[in-house]
Write a structure and sequence with these properties.
353 residues, alpha/beta, eleven-stranded mixed beta sheet, 11 helices, 29% helix, binds threonylcarbamoyladenylate, binds magnesium ion
């Protein structure tokens, strides 16, 4: 990757850790930081060398743009984002201004990313040449602490190798990026557990959902009576948001999403199989009778999928570390609330049957 191997250190996300992370970032280095959604691999947005390092540490293609994370000062208002060159208010229509201001005040800090006309200081490298910048204010105190200290925005993709399962703990980051980055700040397990919801605010003020995530469509609708959140069509070109790539979030172990109709298509004889259940019934283990070994993970079931989302990536990481022949994931029976995001991640993590 053209980078020297480094000793990767995990430090506590306390004042000392925040100071050390800020120093490295100021020097143009990259640091993995906790957010409420997943851990991010951060670098100063205005430092091209740092942004390049993010792509190379992850093995990420330059065609996949990065989310710009802002703190409480820069993200305080549209005017502040504009003054710092993150967005360009002159390119906003009036409805775009109104809707983005409303969403910022309702959901920031939190797991909502807005696609807005980009400002002067946002480079092609960050947006992969797109005219919109993706912006969010994360809710984790450690990430916000670093942003406060720097007074500059940080770009940060999820802190995993490109295409692999996202990290929700410092150990998950260590497992994938050890030797590629100098520092990981430990801020505990990510509380939301799936990435931010990404919406584009169109010039007529309507929303287009590009990635379901930690803020559900119904929550968005509650704050914007009248605005329509359109689900992204499956035919969307990958250039719109490569996170929509069909294969993403994937464990190394071959992983399949199954329901009662498709389970029979899987060859299970004498295999070591991990099973991830997303409902309260364990029908999968009952149906597989010829496997060598079954290892079960159960996502706690709740109507809104909050607890399931929280545990989702950790369960996939645990199963992936067991060197199994395959992982079978139960296709979640629900699509409401966070289940939409969970289903989306599982579909992309799985191979086609
Ligand atoms: O919760 C999150 O959003 C996490 C944490 C670390 O903040 N970040 C995250 O970043 O999920 P990443 O890079 O793993 O996924 C960001 C997605 C990618 O699919 C990327 O293509 C899309 O956002 N994206 C970023 N900037 C974009 C832009 N200007 N236009 C379209 N899509 C964009
Ligand atoms: Mg990612």
């Amino acid at each position: 990757m053209g980078q020297n191997l480094k000793q990767t250190k995990i430090s506590a996300g306390d004042d000392t850790g925040i100071l050390a992370a800020s120093k490295l970032l100021e020097q143009g280095d990259v640091v993995a930081l906790p957010t409420e959604t997943v851990y991010g691999l951060s670098g100063i947005a205005f430092n091209a060398e740092a942004v390049h390092k993010i792509f190379s540490a992850k093995g990420r293609p330059l065609t996949d743009p990065l989310i710009t994370h802002v703190g409480r000062i820069i993200g305080e208002s549209l005017a502040a984002l504009n003054a710092h060159g993150v967005i360009d208010l002159e390119k906003f229509s009036t409805p775009q201004k109104e809707v983005s201001a409303k969403l910022m005040s309702a959901f920031w800090p939190g797991p909502l990313t807005l696609l807005l006309p980009r400002g002067k200081r946002i480079t092609d490298l960050i947006t992969a040449g797109h005219e919109n910048v993706a912006v969010r204010m994360p809710r984790h105190e450690v990430f916000l602490g670093v942003l406060d200290k720097l007074g500059k925005p940080l770009v940060a993709p999820s802190a995993n190798l490109f295409g692999r399962t996202s990290p929700t703990s410092a150990q998950h980051v260590m497992h994938q990026l050890n030797g590629r980055i100098p520092l990981i700040l430990d801020g505990g397990d990510s509380q939301v557990g799936v990435e931010s919801t990404i919406v584009r605010i169109e010039s007529d003020g309507s929303l287009t959902l590009l990635r379901p995530g930690g803020v559900s469509v119904s929550e968005l609708e509650q704050h914007l009576p009248g605005a329509i959140a359109k689900a992204e069509a499956t035919t969307t070109p990958v250039t719109v948001a490569p996170g929509l790539l069909e294969s993403h979030y994937a464990p190394k172990t071959p992983t399949f999403l199954v329901n009662e109709a498709t389970l029979g298509h899987i060859e299970t004889k004498d295999k070591s199989i991990g099973v991830l259940l997303t409902s309260e019934t364990n029908w999968i283990s009952e149906r597989i009778i010829d496997a060598r070994r079954l290892t079960l993970e159960v996502l706690p079931y709740d109507l809104e999928g909050r607890r399931a989302a929280q545990g989702l990536f950790a369960a996939l990481h645990r199963l992936d570390h067991l060197e199994l022949d395959l992982i079978l994931v139960e296709d979640p029976p629900s699509e409401g609330f966070l289940w939409l995001a969970i289903k989306d991640r599982l579909k992309r993590a799985a191979k086609k049957l």
